[in-house]
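Here is one chain, start to finish.
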Amino acid sequence: EPFQKLVNQGLILGEDGQKMSKSRGNVVNPDDVVKEYGADSLRLYEMFMGPLEQVKPWQMKGVEGVSRFLARVWRVAFEEQQDGSSAVSPKVQDVPCSNKELLRVVHETIKKVGEDVEKLSFNTAISQMMICTNAFTQAEVVPLKEFIQFLTLLNPFAPHLAEEIAERLGVSGMLSETTWPTYDEAALVRSEIELVVQVNGKLRDRLMISKDADEETVKATALASPKVKEHTDGKTIRKIIFIPGKIFNIVAN
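Its structure:
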């Protein structure tokens, strides 16, 4: 009392898979981890190791991996100058998000992180944030509004980094005191789908096409693909097998 639910977290083992103890010499001092990788990396790795209730071994390589992820988040916002200082990346712009695929990923992340936090599924929430970071990295323009929303999601997991980036980007106040982002159902709808293109039953290409594209449109797009043309040029197309939203198979000889 007064709690209505009890969650027992799993034990963190040493790197040798055994319970940590001084006699075994497999104890990990968190102060050493913080000194080398920072408190955010330690915090994030503990949540990323696996489901909260499972027993799991400690791995320093995992800490390094999480630290690299946080470095990627930093590089989305900043570029290193010749004198070693950091300046805001020209990709970060205070403009409406015109990239529908990026917008979808951001809102998927808002939805999943919110739901996973409620379920204490921190590891899968972090995985989704890694996907979102990759989307920002690949985008030609990083819209400021959506990136700040992402930082707000990251803040409970890596508060030092998130708050530092937000402050440098001109956000007033603390992220921890802002309203949690809400997702837009309309933004979650995929306008394009990935279609597998085969020639004689063998995978030759994957195309992104409109989910409402008819067979003739898909056929023209598939036959124009250089990877498909390699296996159809000089051959007669005998049959087309089209399963909307899944597969487009060309039978040629």
